[in-house]
Specification:
Blueprint lengths: L15 E10 L2 E7 L5 E5 L6 H12 L27 E9 L5 E9 L2 E6 L2 E3 L1 H9 L11 E2 L4 H5 L3 H12 L5 H197 L5 H17 L1 H100 L8 H16 L4 E4 L4 E3 L5 H8 L6 E3 L2 H13 L6 E4 L3 E2 L17 E2 L4 E3 L5 H8 L3 E3 L2 H9 L10 E3 L4 E2 L5 E2 L2 H7 L8 H19 L2 H51 L1 H33 L1 H7 L4 H39 L1 H105 L6 E3 L20 E2 L2 E2 L7 H7 L3 E2 L6 H4 L4 H24 L7 H63 L5 E6 L10 E6 L13 H18 L4 E5 L7 H13 L6 E5 L3 H4 L4 E8 L5 E8 L1 H6 L1 H6 L4 H9 L1
Parallel strand pairs: 3-27, 3-28, 8-26, 11-12, 12-21, 13-22, 16-17, 26-27
Antiparallel strand pairs: 1-2, 1-4, 4-5, 5-6, 6-7, 9-11, 10-15, 14-16, 17-18, 18-19, 20-23, 24-25, 28-29
């Protein structure tokens, strides 16, 4: 690296950038020292050489972030990092800053291991200390008042007003007051609001104080009237209670007398009832026995039916096995018959064969005797001569003898073959006759089986017709039973669904009996249960109305309180479950609020009373008592709006939605849809009775139809018979098929084969006969020739012996032998034929078939006996069950007779006890009347005490306390062990006997009651004095009501108001002091912020027009810098506008690029002139300027700015950089990674030579570079 230096002349005032030291920073590999920098230094070089990297180096050492240096992280600043080959792990830039006194301070910033580090004069410092030291020489990196990057000059001109304000805040350092300013401003606003609040509060308390005084005066007057009214109330209630208690005591005495009378009657009645109950219990026991026996009989009948069906099946099976056994025995008999026939035939054949063998033997003996007897007697010499001559003849006719032997052999062979064929023909004829017999036998069996099949088929058809008839009847009965059962299930389900509280349990039956008894006992006075006397107008209201009437749906409506009291006594006497009564004369019903019928919003709102149809006029008042002014709405939201929507309780109503959700004015909400749906079925209770009657009818019909199960048994019997018949028919058909298709066909085929074979014998026999005839002729010819030779040889011998020829001797021998052979052959043929027949009969082996048939018979007989045994067992069981059922039926009839007898006795005893019951009931009614009167007066006393307690009336007492007077809410559910009456207002209290007993401890002091009130004997006198006291109370009440209800705590309120008045005065004063203090602090900060901002902004605004004129070189150019908010300019924007020479005013964004650059430079120079940084670095600000504007800017810098600041510019235009004091040239080295080299050149020495010489022969850039290098 070459380093060139030049001196700075006339550097006065502030310090300057002296030199830069770069080490491995971006494209600057190794260490480089650049400088010293002159007052006006230009950096030049070709594109891509690293000029902007030098600008980045200056920005880096002054504190810029990596993002402003065109890299993502610090390590990218190291040389070689862009191509992944950094030359080192760190890089460094050092700025040597030279103060006006000549001192130099080194500011160093580097990158080491990916982190930034800072040094001042070689000492490591923090980033904050580094920035603070920079700000001490007027270098503010955030404001960038000394740096203009490439392409950013126009952005300075185009800043919006708020951005300009922020720029001036940074430069003037007024932003340092911003946080405190905003905090104090918020505190001041809050303090002023508190002051105003306390002032308003104090005014309100003063007004409240005046009102409290007026209330105090009214309260004193009101209290005087109230005291008078309370005294009158005390007198009224003492008067009423006195006479009420006296009547209570008198009634108690009467009740005691009546109880004694009833006790005597009770004893008699109890004895009669005990007898009646004993008979009734015995009757119920017998009835239970009847029911139990009936159920047992049904079960036994069902079991008997199953056993009978089983017995029937066994009977069918036994009959089937018996028929099979008969058939098998017949087959065995046939087999035995055939076996006997075969044995007889075999014995006969063997006998005949034995006889033939004997005859054969006798014949042979006979032949031998004849042969010996008829044999020619020759001497030995003659025999020897005969033999010699025979040999001689044989030798002479040797050839002929051989031919003769061959011909005789052939003849014998042919004759043997013929005999064999004739014998075979005879055997085949016998076989054909036997097969024909078999065919005839099979045809007879087939005919018999066909007849059986026809008879069995007819029997099966008749059984099927009968079964079809029975099944039709059974199907009709079953269909009817199924329809009845289906309807019964529907009826039972309807009964179950409708039985929310009407389930047919014993308790509900008892309640229904109780109601029926009350209606009979108090005919015309007891109307029925509430839900029976009315009906919702539409089913969609069922659930909602059920919710409102929920606890009173089962309440009994009657005419008077007296009737209700008697009815309660009736229930107790007959031990019926407790009930709730609604006596019409005791119900206090509030009138219907007519305006509720006019509600239009929400839509569909109706009074519950209006959606229920009253079906008995006696229930109208009770229904109105229960419903009150309740409303029914379409949805829960509508009901909730009516119940909670009003701010005043008078505008809130009890409302229920269609799904049963209830909203009360007090805020209580309740639901229970599932339970309500079940209970809403009570509206259908009127049809329950009809459903029950229908159920009973259906049960009877089903019971009647169930008797037809016997027809099913008959059907089963018929099916068993059909099955047996079908099985027999199947067996017969199978046997017929076997006979027709297997046995008969096989035998016929065999017969046809045998006949075919028999037809083949005649041609064969004829052929054999021809061969025999031919052989015989040939044999005869040869014998003739042989005889001729023999006659010649034996001629002498025959003459001596005395025979005609030697053939006579030989023929006799041959004849005898031939006859013997023929006879013997005949015997052999007959014996062979008999042997064949014996073998054929033996092969049929009838005994083996007999054994097979006998085994089959034994097996079937065994099955038959087993089935018969099972049948007998089941039959015995059926008989036993029938006997057992007969005994049960007999017992049942006895029980029914006994039940009828007991029921008659029970009815007679009940009738006999009615007179006693009438007398008892009369006494009981009198007692009930007295108890009812006592209860009424006790309730009246309770009501009076309750009114005293509610009205807070001072009542003099001898004993007890008014704390004992309590009441239960109307919503309480009555106890199951006690009946009760609903009386009073629809929203009033109810009272129990326990409460009455507690109130007996209250003893009233009547000393203050005047004598005239105590001595009243007649009811009229009591009523007149009561009316008099009520009139006086009404008069006082009117006077009190004319007055507005005063505040009874007026004195307490007055003290509280005075106390709060003092507190509010103190709070107001404290708030004023606090607000004043915060305002003073805020004004001070505001003034300091304004002075800092205005002190910087005002000089800039005043000088910018002159600077713009100088830059434009035209006095007509105008520049204006003004704040939108003159009082506090830092809160709003700053407007900057310029008018170029010779042009009209246009917004800044409508100016040309050169005009924007000039405007931006004017602003920068103006700002720099107010708070100048030691140097100014501009990167290619001349890019958008033409040569004229470049000359203007260059002239301004040379003439004006050079003396005020040090300027460093990067430029590519010679018109600009040739005005500089020195040049720094940047050039690239050829390498894989861009590497920059540096050249410096001092232009001041050329300016000293003279402008003329420089003008005539200006040095070129290249020559400068060469000179600098050399």
């Amino acid at each position: 690296m070459s380093e060139a230096g030049f001196s700075l002349n006339g550097l006065a005032g502030k310090g300057t950038l002296h030199t830069l030291e770069l080490e491995n920073f971006k494209s600057y590999k190794g260490k480089h020292v650049i400088g010293p920098f002159s007052r006006f230094t230009a950096i030049i070089g070709p594109n891509g050489s690293g000029k902007s990297n030098l600008m980045d180096a200056i920005s880096f050492v002054l504190g810029e972030r990596p993002s402003s240096l065109r890299v993502k992280k610090y390590t990218d600043l190291i040389h070689g990092a862009p191509i992944g080959k950094p030359v080192a792990k760190k890089c460094r830039v050092t700025m040597n800053y030279k103060y006006a006194n000549g001192d130099i301070k080194a500011f160093t910033r580097g990158v080491n291991n990916g982190a930034s580090e800072h040094f001042i004069n070689g000492q490591a410092v923090t980033s904050a200390a580094y920035s603070q030291e920079m700000e001490s020489i007027n270098i503010f990196i955030k404001a960038r008042n000394f740096l203009v990057y490439q392409g950013a000059i126009e952005n300075i001109a185009m800043k919006n007003p708020k951005e300009r304000t922020q720029l001036f805040e940074e430069l003037s350092r007024s932003h340092e007051f911003q946080a405190e300013y905003e905090r104090l401003k918020v505190d001041m606003t809050k303090a002023e609001d508190d002051t105003q609040h306390n002032m308003n509060k104090r005014r309100g308390i003063a007004q409240e104080k005046r009102e409290a005084k007026m209330e105090k005066d009214e309260a004193e007057k009101y209290q005087q009237l109230k005291n008078e009214l309370a005294a009158k109330y005390t007198m009224l209630y003492l008067h009423q209670l006195f006479h009420c208690e006296r009547l209570i005591e008198d009634t108690k005495k009467d009740i005691d007398k009546q109880k004694k009378n009833l006790s005597s009657l009770e004893s008699t009645k109890s004895k009669e009832e005990a007898k009646i109950n004993s008979v009734h219990q015995e009757l119920r026991k017998v009835q239970r026995d009847v029911t139990k026996l009936t159920r047992t009989l049904d079960q036994k009948e069902s079991a008997l039916s199953e056993k009978q069906q089983e017995m029937l099946s066994l009977k069918v099976a036994v009959a089937h096995e018996h028929k099979k056994l008969d058939t098998a025995k017949k087959m065995l008999a046939a087999a035995e018959t055939k076996a006997e026939t075969n044995a007889t035939q075999l014995k006969e054949l063997k006998k005949r064969r034995q006889e033939l063998e004997v005859k054969k033997k006798a014949y042979e003996e006979e032949i031998e005797a004849v042969r010996q007897k008829d044999e020619l007697n020759l001497s030995d010499e003659q025999v020897q001569e005969y033999e010699q001559l025979k040999d001689q003849a044989n030798r002479q006719s040797a050839m002929l003898q051989r031919e003769l032997v061959a011909a005789r052999q052939m003849f014998e062979n042919d004759q043997s073959a013929l005999n064999h064929e004739l014998r075979r023909q005879k055997e085949q004829q016998d076989k054909v006759k036997a097969k024909e017999s078999d065919v005839q036998r099979l045809e007879r069996q087939i005919q018999a089986l066909s007849q059986k099949i026809k008879e069995t088929a007819d029997e099966e058809k008749a059984l099927k017709d009968n079964l079809k008839k029975i099944e039709t009847e059974v199907v009709v009965d079953k269909s009817s039973a199924a329809e009845y059962n289906k309807e019964l299930i529907t009826v039972i389900r309807q009964l179950s669904d409708a039985s929310g509280d009407t389930a047919e349990g014993e308790r509900n039956q008892r309640r229904q009996e109780a109601l029926d008894g009350l209606k009979r006992a108090f005919e015309g006075s007891v109307f029925g249960r509430l839900h029976e006397l009315c009906q919702p107008s539409h089913k969609r209201f069922n659930i909602a109305t059920t919710k409102i009437l929920q606890k009173h749906m089962n309440s009994i409506v009657c005419d008077t309180e007296e009737t209700a009291t008697k009815a309660i006594a009736f229930l107790k006497d007959h031990r019926y479950p407790p009930e709730t009564f609604l006596p019409n004369d005791a119900l206090v019903v509030n009138p219907i609020n007519e305006k509720l019928r006019e509600i239009r919003k929400p839509a569909g709102v109706k009074l519950v009373f209006d959606v229920i149809n009253v079906q008995h006029q006696g229930a109208r008042k009770a229904l109105q008592f229960v419903c009150g002014n309740s409303l029914v709405c379409e949805t829960q939201d509508d009901a909730k709006q009516l119940a909670y929507g009003g701010t005043d309780l008078k505008d809130r109503y009890k409302a229920v939605s269609m799904d049963g959700t209830l909203f009360q004015q007090s805020g209580v909400m309740s639901g229970g849809v599932a339970d309500l749906k079940a209970k809403s079925k009570k509206w259908d209770e009127k049809v329950v009775k009809q459903l029950r009657e229908r159920r009973d009818f259906l049960n009877e019909k089903i019971a009647d139809l169930s008797k037809h199960r016997r027809r099913e048994l008959e059907a089963e019997q018929e099916r068993a018979k059909i099955t047996s018949s079908a099985m027999r028919l199947k067996i017969f058909k199978s046997e017929l098929k076997s006979l027709q298709e297997d046995q008969l066909q096989r035998v016929q085929n065999e017969l046809e084969g045998m006949v075919a074979e028999l037809d083949m014998f005649p041609p064969t026999i004829a052929h054999c006969q021809e061969k025999v005839d031919r052989s015989k002729r040939e044999l005869q010819d040869l014998e003739t020739r042989s005889n001729e030779v023999s006659d010649q040889v034996f001629a002498d011998f025959c003459a001596r012996v005395g025979i005609a020829s030697i053939r006579d001797y030989e023929n006799r021998e041959m004849r005898i032998r031939q006859e013997m052979e023929d006879k013997l052959r005949s015997f052999d043929d007959d014996i062979q034929k008999l042997t064949y027949e014996i073998d054929f009969v033996t092969e049929q082996d009838g005994n083996r078939k007999v054994e097979a048939e006998r085994e089959k018979v034994n097996q079937i007989d065994k099955n038959y006996k087993n089935k018969k045994k099972e049948e007998k067992k089941v039959a015995d069981d059926v008989a036993k069950k029938l006997e057992d059922m007969d005994q049960d039926k007999s017992s049942l009839e006895e029980k029914k007779t006994l039940a009828a007898k007991l029921e008659t006795e029970w009815n007679e005893m009940k009738k006999a006890s009615q007179s006693q019951m009438k007398e008892y009931n009369k006494a009981e009614k009198e007692k009930i009347r007295l108890e009812s009167l006592l209860t009424k007066k006790q309730y009246e006393r309770h009501s009076l005490l309750h009114s005293v307690k509610l009205g807070q009336i001072a009542l003099p007492l001898k004993a007890g306390s008014m704390a004992d007077v309590e009441y239960e809410e109307d919503d309480a559910v009555p106890d199951d062990n006690s009946s009760q009456m609903s009386q009073g207002a629809s929203d009033g209290p109810s009272v129990s006997q326990e409460q009455i007993q507690r109130e007996q401890h209250i003893k009233i002091n009547y000393d203050s009651l005047p004598r005239e009130y105590k001595e009243e004997d007649e009811e009229k006198q009591v009523r007149d004095n009561t009316n008099k006291l009520n009139a006086e109370i009404d008069e006082l009440q009117k006077n009190v009501s004319k007055m507005n209800a005063p505040n009874l705590k007026a004195n307490q309120r007055m003290a509280e108001v005075r106390e709060r008045e003092a507190e509010s005065t103190e709070e107001l004063e404290n708030a004023r002091k606090k607000a004043k203090k915060i305002r003073q602090q805020f004004e001070k900060v505001k003034t300091d912020r304004y002075r800092a901002f205005h002190g910087f902004f005002e000089p800039v605004a005043n000088s910018i027009d002159d600077i713009y004129k100088q830059l434009s070189r035209n006095t007509s150019a105008q520049a204006f810098l003004g704040a939108d908010n003159m009082e506090e300019p830092y809160l709003d924007g700053i407007q900057y506008n310029c008018v170029a020479p010779g042009k009209r005013f246009r917004p800044m964004d409508n100016l040309s690029g050169g005009e924007k650059t000039i405007a931006a430079l004017a602003l920068l120079f103006a700002v720099h002139g107010r708070n100048p940084a030691p140097f100014f670095v501009l990167d290619e600000i001349d890019a958008a300027l033409d040569n004229t504007n470049i000359g203007k800017v260059a002239s301004y810098i040379c003439e004006s700015a050079r003396e005020q600041m040090q300027i460093i510019v990067i430029s590519l235009k010679e018109e600009f950089y040739n005005k500089a004091d020195s040049l720094i040239g940047i050039f690239p080295y050829p390498a894989a990674c861009t590497t920059s080299g540096i050249l410096t050149f001092d232009l001041t020495r050329f300016k000293q030579i003279g402008l003329n010489e420089m003008t005539e022969n200006p040095p070129t850039t290249s020559s400068v570079a060469i000179a600098a290098t050399s």
